[in-house]
Amino acid sequence: MMLIPTHHFRDIERKPEYLQPEKCVPPPHPGPVGTMWFIRDGCGIACAIVTWFLVLYAEFVVLFVMLIPSRDYVYSVINGIVFNLLAFLALASHCRAMLTDPVRTCTEMAFTLFGRGSPFPEKLDKPVSGRSKCLLGAVPKGNATKEFIESLQLKPGQVVYKCPKCCSIKPDRAHHCSVCKRCIRKMDHHCPWVNNCVGENNQKYFVLFTMYIALISLHALIMVGFHFLHCFEEDWTKCSSFSPPTTVILLILLCFEGLLFLIFTSVMFGTQVHSICTDETGIEQLKKEERRWAKKTKWMNMKAVFGHPFSLGWASPFATPDQGKADPYQYVV
Predict the structure, then answer these.
(1) Which one, of 261, 271, 247, 249, lies nearest residue 219 by Cα?
(2) Can you give the residue ranges of the Palmitoyltransferase DHHC domain (predicted)?
């Protein structure tokens, strides 16, 4: 079977007959500002519910099997505060990753509309020379209509791409997600555990989610180890408020869950940090796409995702990243 290079499809997409704007249905009217982003996918919703259930199960075992029955008050309080804080941050990061539109506002269409040799406009909040159409969030379906393309007033040599699946004008570094049914700019992958695509706008929250899940998994495994040692040295009937067989089953299940998620989330955390530092998404690495964007330092790439400048907000799922000067979106010609 002959392999077809990725850029071949881009060459097809740029042909005028491929756009076929007359076949695109006009996009629906956008919802009110601040409308919550949520993917209605049965598998993703089920995985998100399972994620919360597993974290709450770990909470139950840690509190009611190990910490509350413990006679060491200081040990219980310190570990209870640390574990509950990490679990809260993990669930908060999960919510932000799941309910955040994975594409930033305005920026995703800039280079598609202005062309790869044109200077980047300093502000994108308002139309520039009547040619800019600022989009909010993920690329809307069906915006590759004849009227919309004509309203862009493109100059000779400027290129627009059309996604044949969602009939939208496709920004640079965008890929179509069959689950979200949208083109997502800088899409890394679609994660069923957060029921959302991991893109440029929610990658920070996904990284924090994997980090905090790995930390609470490691913390739970350490406490299980100490609790087993304590129960072996003491009477099993006194080291827990549950019967010894029930205690052993609950601890073994927690140990299995913690070990599994520690390995999984640690690997995901490492791959995400590597993807951020190299400024290359998982899909771009998999497809070995030609790099058309300017190379930046690893520190600048980190600030582009977590915010500029470096602060404690990097570790907070409640702090929205402020890119400042760290996200110039420069493309090579």
Answers:
(1) 261
(2) 162-288
3-class DSSP string for the chain: CCCCCHHHHHHHHCCHHHHCHHHCCCCCCCCCCCCCCCCCCHHHHHHHHHHHHHHHHHHHHHHHHHHCCCCCHHHHHHHHHHHHHHHHHHHHHHHHHHHCCCCCCCHHHHHHHHCCCCCCCCCCCCCCCCCCCCCCCCECCCCCCHHHHHHCCCCCCCCCEEECCCCEEECCCEEEECCCCEEEECCCEEECCCCEEECCCCHHHHHHHHHHHHHHHHHHHHHHHHHHHHHHHCCCCCCCCCCHHHHHHHHHHHHHHHHHHHHHHHHHHHHHHHHHHHCCCHHHHHHCCCCCECCCCHHHHHHHHHCCCCCHHHHCCCCCCCCCCCCCCCECC
Q: What is the pLDDT of residue 31?
A: 52
pTM score, whole prediction: 0.78
pLDDT at residue 3 tops 60: no
Q: Are 36 and 195 in contact (CB under 8 A)?
A: no
* Distance of alpha carbon 122 from alpha carbon 132, whole angstroms: 12
**Average pLDDT value for residue range 170-185:** 84
Between helix 244-278 and helix 42-61 the angle, nearest 10°, is: 130
Give tens-digit pLDDT for 31-79: 554 567 889 999 999 999 999 999 999 999 999 999 998 888 999 999 9
The residues annotated with a catalytic role in the active site are 191
Q: What is the pLDDT of residue 231?
A: 84
Residues whose CB is less than 8 angstroms from the CB of residue 201 and which lie 6 or more positions away in sequence, other chains included: 100, 101, 102, 103, 104, 137
